[in-house]
Amino acid sequence: MKGHADIAIIGGSGVYDVSLFDNVRQIEVDTPFGKPSDSITVGDFGEKKSVFYQDMGQDTGSLQPT
Q: pLDDT tens digit string along 21-39?
């Protein structure tokens, strides 16, 4: 997907709920630094195009501190 977002939110530490968005969908992206740990959530917040990314992925239960 090429385009833009008016709002970008990086979640984590308790920020996981995207229910404020309408027209929610998941997209996979690749960057010059490699793929992120999870997909990007895209949606509308009012009239603003928005993206949401959980900085540690949706399934953080498998990640244990060392």
A: 899 999 998 889 998 888 8
